[in-house]
Amino acid sequence: MRNFGWLGRSTGDERLDQVRNKMYAEAYWLVVLICNVSAIVKIIRFGPDYKLFITELIILVVSSLYIGLRSIFKGVYAAEAELQDRRSRVSRSKKQIISGLVLGLGIAIFFGVRSAVLYGDDSTRLWYFLTVFAFSIIFYIPLFLMILWLGDAAARKASQSMGPKDDEE
């Protein structure tokens, strides 16, 4: 394990190392919770001006990207995906299909209702809803399916090629 001062030292006791890692994970989730609460309070109090909560957004995005990329480059992502496929009754690919369908349908319904309310009058609201809903489904469901599937496939491939590595490099 790399030695980053007090943070990276191993005690030699596996149980203590696991407890320390669990505490770091809890601290991470506490920071995420504080950032989310802070951003929500700022949005409610001052309005949706992103400049007011850009710090919170940066913390959330950078930390999430770091954890995701680190798990891919250490080979953990592929191992976790394999374990999840073995344990779960529903495979990861089916979950991605369901997620893509739900996201696509949700956005299609949102855009359909929005266009019906904004642009339709009493006689044309149903037509606006159905038209926008149909075109949104045709566009967004394949888009989300492709993004979810390609993202997972690329992450698995990269993670498998990296393989499980020891931290001592």
UniProtKB/TrEMBL annotation:
The keyword Membrane applies. Coiled coil: none annotated. The keyword Thylakoid does not apply. It comes from the Bacteria. It holds the Pfam family DUF6773. The chain crosses the membrane at residues 27-44, 50-69, 97-120, 126-150. InterPro entries: DUF6773. Keywords: Membrane, Transmembrane, Transmembrane helix. This is DUF3278 domain-containing protein. It comes from Paenibacillus radicis (ex Gao et al. 2016).
